[in-house]
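Entry for the shared binder. Reason: the reviewer on the internal report wants the predicted structure included alongside the sequence.
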Amino acid sequence: MEMNGTMNEGVQKLVRVGHSPDADDAFMFYALAKGCIETQGYQFQHQLADIETLNRWALEGRLELTALSVHAYAYAADRYALCPCGASVGDGYGPIVVAPKTADLETLRTATIAVPGLMTTAYLALRLCLGGRFQPVVVPFDKIIQAVQEGSYGGQAVQAGLLIHEGQLTYAQEKLSLVVDLGVWWQNQTGLPLPLGVNGVRKDLGQQTMAEITQVFQESIRYGLEHREEALEYALGFSRGLARSQADQFVGMYVNHWTLDLGQRGREAIEELLTRGFKAGLIPASVRPEFAPL
């Protein structure tokens, strides 16, 4: 846990902010973590956890500002509005399914697949892609490659793995074969980018506070993009062994113009994903995204 943020005059209002200990999230929050920007009287307390843990916390409304999966937002929309900034969007790329040897989608439909969590957007996208079929085995995201290589996890067989984060760049080094890139599949299906991670701000804070927190968050993202080398240097500490060039590539994939502002097309992509999930019976209710003011 970190507690940082630029100190302003007067009493500071505490904002507990949750994000993953990954290079892209670290890059976004660099300016806040290191006190590089003004915070409008708020003190940001950083709580780091994997995305599935953050998704579970979001169902409880535990944090004022939190990263969460678009999939999880369907279950937390009563508590959170989405920030127009801070999203991780796969524009023609995204989570991938890998296997020890060449396979196809039909093979995956009867496979046991290691997944990083049942509330991740990657899991929802894979279910849409495969028509809801296949047997999932929940495995920590950073253990999935090993589980695929060994063919098991916790006594359960593993025939393929759904990779998020840096595994999307390193799977070939581990001698695994790509079966499907869900970002490519989604774009072919819809013509839209695949929205993966978003950030939610709690609605009970009120419109003014929601707007101020979102503005500070957007400024942190903007600062990182405008001071890329120093933000990347900080992010390298969260890259789990990636070479600098790979970390740079990974950050560029998921911290970019979509992250600074989703825009109308990014918002449409979120709505389309949630709509398709509901129509396929994978999300229990129809959810129309609500966005925080900025």
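Summary line for the report: DSSP finds 13 helices and 14 strands in the chain.
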